[in-house]
Amino acid sequence: MTARAMTNVIDIITRLQRCKLEGSKSDRLLAAMVLDDLDFASQASISEIAARIGVSEPTVTRFCRGLGCEGIRDFKFWLAQAIAVGGQYLTAEPASRDTMESRIATIVSEAAVAAIQRVAASIDMVQIVGVAERIGAASQVLCIGSGGTSSMLAVEMQNRLFRLGLSAVAQVDGQLQRMQAATATPGMVVIAFSTSGYAQSVVDAVEVARTYGAGTVAVTAPGSALARVADTVIEYQPVEDGNLYKATSSRFALLAILDMIAMAVAETRGTKVMETLRRIKQSLNTLKVEDPKLPLGD
Questions:
Q1: Prediction pTM value
Q2: Strand 168-171 to strand 140-145: parallel, antiparallel, or no bridges (unpaired)?
Q3: Which DSSP string do the residues of 61-129 spell out, in sequence order?
Q4: pLDDT at site 1
Q5: Which of 12, 22, 180, 187 has an alpha carbon within 20 to 30 A of 4's alpha carbon?
Q6: Would 3-90 and 124-287 be classified into the same CATH topology?
Q7: CA torsion, points 246, 247, 250, 251, in degrees to nearest 10?
Q8: What CATH architecture does domain 124-287 belong to?
Q9: Contact (Cβ atoms closer than 8 angstroms) between residue 150 and residue 259
């Protein structure tokens, strides 16, 4: 088995950070040099690396092997991969505390508004209404998503739909997604969320549900694996601003899409949803504060 097939050398940065603290004197010097100048270390020859801190070339080779690599070439492969995948997190500048209070509120709110406005300007509402009609007529709706944002969306879609009198269930566990998809019938609709479109359990569940005749809707990236297997695709491509300290603003845009679908479902079903909503409001007001201005179950 080669070093590239070994899982314990994939995160070379963590290995370097440990070596900087716990290695021999020469290893600590080499690790510190690499972490301080990743670009140089990923491109320099073994002689150039050795000369920079005054060690021999065999010492550099031993250092690479101590990290789990076969040699300098393998080490540079993993280092280049680490820079490509997570380099931006290694070079991020610390946030200024002097302006934190005024700056954070503005950055978060403006990014959220911008994300929602982009969706509002590009969304195909004819498609949204068509999806809403299918959901409103479904015998059951299965909402699925995997990961932070997508699993949140699946649960929130269930939360929006059950109060409209629909039979809706959310599954965020990969195995249960596949199992529930296997119980699908032609009257069922599966709505799947995946920002990347490559969450394998979600892709698998949609394929299984289609096998048994269920309608499938995906809110996902265009051209993704999930987009290729769903009947209907509501395309969404996140646009981020590069601020590594701020949570992704795409969450707000995706929630806006979800709310558009939910509102369209409610209007498609018409006044028949009012009795269910009234019961929920009555139940909550009986158990909590009697304030009719409070949101419905939120």
A1: 0.72
A2: parallel
A3: HHHHHHTT-SSHHHHHHHHHHHHHHHHHHHSPPPPPSTTHHHHHHHHHHHHHHHHHHHHHHH--HHHHH
A4: 36
A5: 22
A6: no
A7: -140
A8: 3-Layer(aba) Sandwich (3.40)
A9: no
Cβ contact 161:259 at 8 Å: no
Question: Could you tell me the two tokens for 44?
Answer: 């320099």
Residues 106-156 have pLDDT tens digits of 888 999 999 999 999 999 999 999 999 999 999 999 999 998 899 999 999
Domain ranges of the chain: 3-90, 124-287
The rounded distance, in Å, linking the Cα atoms of 10 and 28 is 20
Identity of residue 134: R
CA–CA gap between residue 148 and residue 153 (Å, rounded)? 9
Q: Report which of 204, 217, 254, 226 is spatially closest to residue 142, judged by C-alpha positions.
A: 217
Tokens of 259: 């709310």
Partnered with residue 141 across adjacent β-strands are 168, 189
CA distances from residue 81 to 9, 12, 39 in whole angstroms, order as listed:
11, 9, 12
Identify whether the C-beta of residue 201 lies closer than 8 Å to the C-beta of residue 177.
yes
What CATH number labels 3-90?
1.10.10.10
Task: Supply the angle between the helices 100-122 and 250-269 in degrees, to the nearest 10.
Answer: 50
